[in-house]
Fold:
Amino acid sequence: MKRRQFIRLLGCGAALPLMARAQTKPVIGFLHAGSPEENAKRVAAFHSGLAAAGFVEGQNITIDYRWALGKNERLPELAADLVRERVALITTPGSTAAAVAAKKATSTIPIVFSSGTDPVDLGLVGSLSRPGGNATGITSLNAELAAKRLGVFRELVPGVSRYFTLVKPTSELAAPFVRDLQRAAANLGVRLDVLNANTPSEIDAAFAQIPQQAGCGMVFGPEGFFFVQRARITDLALARRLPTIFDVRDYVEAGGLASYGSDYYNVMELTGGYVARVLNGEKPADLPVQQATRFEMVLNRKTARALGVEISPALLATADDVID
Structure:
């Protein structure tokens, strides 16, 4: 082959999909704020989304996992490590804090995220329809579901007159969630108190501020730190006979009263599908951020009995799952 022909062929490689350009299996950087054990089912759903598009770990892709183990302060370091490894793509399924860390770490490596709040507000994309940079993905908009979650809670426990919410003040998710929940509470004419916790011991202290009397309830939104601490949170709520509603079913499986939010297994599958599209050559800048369309309400009847809460037949009939 002549030298000029070789150079032309080499130059054409820049226009090929990541899979075609790679001499070996492309490496996907997987960044998450939690731990692999507690996210096993969600990771399986992510793999399912990849497999539906023909990508199987160990066969035609490699996945390099980075877990912060509930310590969000480690995310910037882990994201920088993936950038140094020159991975083909960074994905942050189910971890908004990881998405923010990845975006701050690189403006060139493609990023596919799933986010629990508006990715435009977080600076991940320029707009939902045309992201315009190196990132795109799925948004569950769980923070924007605050009004619906509060409405479900009022129907579930109509005797609640004073609502509390717990946020991690250093989290990117805290401000939009509190804003939307306060707006919903004002529209319903109910009182809302905001409590803060950045550490496990501060979670205990926050619960201690809630009066142990009838008429109190607690509403949670998306937050990876609380997800890691969900057993502690649900145990504290049950010990204080405090009704709770969360954003995802995992809390209800751990003993929480109820949840209303996106079907996170579906969100993970969608994220895997978007990773596949980028590997096949589509640019994040041109891939619209997809919004989750499947939502679920999960109730824990055992916890309801322990709290003396009688779940109405209407709610039982509309619930997507009832845990006994």
